[in-house]
Amino acid sequence: MNVVEVNVNPKRVKHDLKKQERSLLLRRFLSNKLMVTGSIIIVLLLLLAILGPKLTPFDPYEMVVKERLEAPSSHHLLGTDNFGRDLLTRIIYGAKVSMWVGFASALLSSIIGLAIGLTASYYRYLDNILMRICDGLLAFPAILFAIALMAVLGAKTENVIIALTIVFSPEVARIVRSRALVVREETYIEAIRSQGASAARIIWKHIAPNTISPLLVKATFVFSEAVIVEATLSFLGAGVPAPDPSWGNILSDGKDVIYTAWWMTVFPGLFIILSVLGLNLLGDGLRDLIDPQSSTK
Amino acid sequence: MEQPLLEINNLKTHFKTERGRVTAVDGISFSVEKGEILGVVGESGCGKSVTAQSILRLFDEKYTASYEGEIKLQGENLLQLSKAEMEKIRGNEVSMIFQDPLSSLNPVFTIGYQLMETIRIHQNRTKKQARQMAIDLLRMTGIPSPEKRVSEYPHQLSGGMRQRVMIAMALACKPKLLIADEPTTALDVTIQAQILDLMLELNEELGMAVVFITHDLGVVAEVCTRVVVMYLGQVVEEANVEELFTTPLHPYTKGLMKAIPQMDGDRSQKLNVIGGTVPALNAIPSGCRFASRCEFANDLCKEKAPDLQVHEGNHKVRCWHYAEISNKEAARHA
Amino acid sequence: MPNQQAESILQVQGLKKYFSVKGFRSKSKNQQVKAVDDVSFTLYKGETLGLVGESGCGKSTTGRALLRLIEPSGGTVLYNNEDILKKSPREFRKVQKDMQMVFQDPFSSLNPRIRIGESIKESLTIHSIGNRNEREEIVMDILGKVGLRSDHYFRFPHEFSGGQRQRIGLARALVADPSILILDEPASGLDVSIQSQILNLLQELQDDFKLTSLFISHDMSVVRHISDRVGVMYLGKLMEEADTDTLFSNPVHPYTKALLSAVPIAKVGKKRERIVLKGEIPSPLNPPSGCIFHTRCPFAMDVCKQVVPEKVEIQDRHTVACHLYS
Amino acid sequence: MYIYILKRIFSLVPVLFVVSIVAFLLIYLTPGDPVSVMLGQEATAEQIEALREQMGFNDPLYLQYFHWLINVLQGNLGDSYFMHMPVTTAIVEHLGPTLSIAVLAELIAILIALPVGILAAKHRGSLMDQFVMGFTLTGMAIPSFLFGLILMLVLGVKLGWLPVAGYQPLSTGFWNYLQYLLMPGLALGIIQSALIARMTRSSMLEVLNADFIKTARSKGVKERSIIYVHALRNALLPIITVVGQTFGLLLAGAVVIETIFNIPGIGQLVLNSIQSRDYAVIQGVILMVAFFYVIINLVIDLLYMLIDPRVGY
User: Fold this and answer.
1) What are the chain A neighbours of B283 within 8 Å (beta carbons)?
2) Contact B189 C263 (CB under 8 A)
3) Which of C54, C191, C200 sits opposite B190 (nearest CB)?
4) What is the chain C residue with the closest CA to A9?
5) Å from C41 to nearest chain A CA?
6) pLDDT band per the 50, 70, 90 thresholds, residue D6
7) Please, what are the domains in chain C?
8) Model confidence over D163-184: pLDDT tens digits?
9) Which of A125, A228, D133, D264 makes the best surface tag, with the fewest CB within 10 Å?
């Protein structure tokens, strides 16, 4: 982009530049097919989770035995489950649970992962200890580790978030550390060090902002993996406890009646796939969008 | 004058990028005689390396690159050959060496394997024969104890050694033409001297023509017999090396020559500067491409693009006013 | 130009930097790579000392050791006759204001996430020079001095060309008004036409700011053009040091001779005989005994194989470390 | 070379140490008092207290850890209260089916992922490439148990090709054994192949941009051997790393899949333990899987030496 001759007072230039940058980012956002489809799916799901409860006439907990296992009809759009509860309503309430659990654990593990990753990358004597702990934690596969943690913490939705955070933080820490180690060797870090900047300033003003892009991409994938792990936990009965609705435990109820009430498996399954697919698309799109350099190549 | 070894007419190389089509090489024409060393010189982004790789059609033609014009190797247009025919020529009639010795050799195969591969693709030799030929090639390019080196891996050798292996690989089938894309840029000056001497010896011994791509005018003066100067995808001047250095005609060539700090230059004088920056490939100005940076540019230069005219003999230049500029400068110095 | 009675501003005495390489095979005990081995030189006020040599000779490590970006293993560096290597980080910060560095790679010397004005202002904030909006003025002013516009302050590094980024690097080094500038191959990453712009700018700034500089490069002709004195390094040692004209007109050390003769000259018809050194640069893991150049030196004598040559001053301010002259 | 092997093995000690600490803490922090369960409801408080003292439950934490560690090193993972047998025997009995699913799934994954990944990289930007990217994105979006349910619905019920549940050990004939494992194996394998295919594609693309590929092409090497000889060998390293890391995921996946196809493997063991609050078994399974994971990654590390001469040089 060649730089046009402009000699106006700097404050206004700063304002114009910021506007220009926003419009450039928007244009790049819209041109990124992955990003757009992903965000549309996620926004729809969020709307569903937030507005849904107001739209549906049914109560997710109210059991109507005689309407048990009804096929999708005009009365019950997606049919009913084995206790006669409206499936669409339970899926909507389930969306709120699944998305919230996924988002919260992604956010928490990002914050913890960032802190551990940055400290490990800058203070070498801590690096070994922290990384061995992370390697140790990473040896436990996510789903099994979550099951064990739930056994310790007890079956509550909040505990699912804590369990998932413990499971995913080491992964985030490892990604942040490896990027931070690369950034540390860059010349601009050497330059700021040569000017006598303090360790804190170097870490938080120079290293951290340059580890954000891999962190954001990883956080999106942690979000989608968390939704899958939560669904699996609830499916096995170790996650969100009944009667609270979650896509996982709806599927679990549907498992035994799969031949007769196929809708109890298909619809929640579809929602899981859709939300995770949306998040994966968001993650891929984010990866291209974030790095300004990659945009000008 | 019998047919030149290589004749490039109006070569154009286009690349598909997300922001539309970019033409990195826009109508290049020059030829290479048998046994000659032709220098192709220019700054980064001028398309010299793209030209070199276009000769062997190394770019992916399915999705990214497309060519126009002619590249005739002894009368045969390489651009019209099938993939299989092209593969027969690469490494056999025309071979290439690259700039960065650290990354140009496959790290997971031994030096011997990579040398023998070229031999066995183009000549039916047994493994034993190919191995012996590989050892002789390594000895020819001055690598000590080649029997041991043959079974070593690239990371066990220094930059200079690796470049010698690259040259040995390129000479495996005694090619008629060697394309060297900045072969010594990544090397230290003393090692560069050794490699340049080696290339000169091989050129005499094997009578092999060389297209020598570089941005270093010093190397051009020491090694090449004829020179092509490129700017922004086009040839702006072509001449024998003596003419180019004694009577350069194009303002860009003159500017380059005066911008380099000479080993015997006057240290108190400021270095000559070519103002501005090279226009981007997707924003090429109309008229002469050097107009935006040329101190002699007038309206004619800005509107109409000059083409490569013959000054005299084989000294060609792409500039409307090169004659007046030379006279004015001659007057100023007299 | 070097004035003889110039006042010395920085005295480097026996500077060493040894990297220990963990023995990978059991038999090779912890070896040491002597990246910088007993290097001594003096910077005189207002002068530019060129440090030249091939890759792996330790010139860039020397530059970084002065600023303690790499902690030296030995030697003293006297600035205002205090040894800055012994100072505590807090005391050393004052020195860091006076000694600034310019780096080679234009594309990784600026933080991509920060506007360039901010990167330049960092130095002011760290050394608490001026208050908040004063600092913005100072940065805009220095931007003008390096040939950029004040509104460039708000742009990101990826919007600039290689040449412009080197100008920003210079602005960052000069904004805190240093007295010594250490330049590590500042123009090697650039094309010739841009390189000449940067070298001219550098010389103007050195005069305006009355700077003393250490100019590190592998490019002999660039070093010759810009330095008043030149030191030639090989495998961690300073082989020869002299005024630029003396060194380039009659080099004394065999390595300097070979180095200068190897540089291709952009002139035709001057076919000079070239001293082509035999063999490869030895691996720093086990450098040759005695004079480290003896394995490739055409004049190597027995004494060169055993004894490390002493630095000898054969003429006024022309020193060399070679047995031919001791 | 051997130094490298020793170094790799030696570097596992701290990791295994952390694994043991985490496993122990999981057990220690689990609610429910094993002693009271053992003695049943009528036991008086004193009896429970006496037994706790005798079994060392009141010792300081680190002492309990050492006892536990020594037992584990001797293969004793404590006792299952629900199944009234040592946890180790319970696990070993149920190990067979889970391992066979995991290995079968891994084979299926690699057989699908490698060719698909390589072809996608070879025809970068083509329709085929976009289809593969679509397949991998959706593949990663489907939880393995859901895909298992779908397969059961389609293959099992609608088409009736494969039995919907149950397990026959190998001894009862190969096809007999295989037909029960095919569906869970496919369910897990296809999901796993999505991840590995994605990694293969990106790793191949990275290598195909390297300079030495251009050198090979300039030597007249055929496009086919550029892909399968020059590029693949270099791309293998990151691929086998992913295979190693995701094998742990696979084991966990096998555990989950079994619950759908009610195969008497570790999965069922874990499921029953969850319902019966038999936590010792769960922790035992987790420790075993973690140990497996560490060993597999060690093997992968050592494989590096065979592929890349620079490693261990």
Assistant:
1) 2
2) yes
3) C54
4) C151
5) 21
6) confident
7) 8-325 (3.40.50.300)
8) 777 777 777 778 778 888 888 8
9) A125
CB–CB contact A201 C126 (8 Å): yes
C222 near B CB under 8 A:
yes
Nearest to C72 by CA among C99, C36, C120, C105: C36
Nearest-angstrom CA–CA distance, C200 and C163? 12
Looking at the DSSP assignment, which residues form a beta bridge with residue B66?
A: B14
Q: Are residues B51 and B197 in the same domain?
A: yes
CA distance D92 to D265: 10
Closest listed residue to residue A208, CA positions, set A277, A118, A132: A118
pTM listed for this prediction: 0.86
Supply the range of the domain harboring residue B69.
6-93+173-333
Could you tell me if B90 and D219 are in contact, meaning their C-beta atoms sit under 8 angstroms apart?
yes
Look up residue C87 and give its amino acid: K
Q: Which residues of D touch C25 (CB under 8 A)?
A: 3
Residues B203 and B271 placed together within one structural domain of the fold: yes
Contacts with B280 from chain A: Cβ below 8 Å = 2
- Other CB atoms closer than 10 Å to residue B295's CB: what's the count? 9
Say which of B53, B92, B107 has its CB closest to residue D310: B107
- Chain C residue nearest residue B277, CA to CA: C194
CB pairs under 8 A between A and D: 131
ipTM: 0.84
Tokens for A53, please give them. 């409860």
Residues B226 and B154 in one domain: no
Could you tell me the domains of chain D? 16-86 (no CATH), 88-312 (1.10.3720.10)
DSSP state of A259: T
Same domain? For B79 and B204 the reply is yes
- State whether B235 and B293 are in the same domain: yes
Contact by Cβ (8 Å): D23, D287: yes
* A158 within domain boundaries: yes
Under 8 Å CB pairs connecting chains A and C tally to: 87
3-class secondary structure, B173: coil
Say if CB A215 and CB A118 are below 8 A apart: no
Nearest chain D Cα distance for residue C284, angstroms: 18
Interchain CB distance below 8 Å, D218 and B89:
no
Nearest Cα residue to D106 out of D189, D211, D2: D189
Helix (H, G, I), strand (E, B) or coil at A58: coil
| pLDDT tier, A293 (very low <50, low <70, confident <90, very high otherwise) | very low
Search chain B and give the residue with CA nearest A32: B18
Q: What are phi and psi of B88, to 5 degrees?
A: -70, -30
Dist. CA A285–CA A42, nearest whole Å:
13
Taking the Cβ of residue A2 and every Cβ of chain B, the question of whether any pair is shorter than 8 Å is answered with: yes
**Residue A125 sits in a domain of what CATH number?**
1.10.3720.10
Closest CA to D282 of A233, A145, A156: A145
Which chain A residues in 83-142 lie under 8 Å from chain D, judged by CB atoms? 132-133, 135-137, 139-142
Tokens read off for A284: 């891929």
Q: How near does any CA of chain D get to the CA of A201, in Å? A: 32
pLDDT per residue as tens digits for the range A140-174? 888 888 888 888 888 888 888 999 999 999 999 99
Q: Name the residue range of residue A145's domain.
A: 36-56+77-291
Min Cα separation A175/chain C (Å): 19
> Is B99 within the bounds of a domain?
no
Question: C265, C269, C322, C318: which is closest to C293 by C-alpha?
Answer: C322
Compute the nearest-CA separation of D6 from chain A (Å).
Answer: 18
Determine the average pLDDT of the residues in C81-85: 90
Q: What is the dihedral of CA B40, B41, B44, B48, to 10 degrees?
A: -10
Q: What is the pLDDT of residues C151-173, one digit of tens each?
A: 899 999 988 988 999 999 999 99
Q: Does D285 touch chain A (CB under 8 A)?
A: yes
Nearest CA in chain B to C223: B261
- Check: CB of residue D163 under 8 Å from CB of residue D82: no
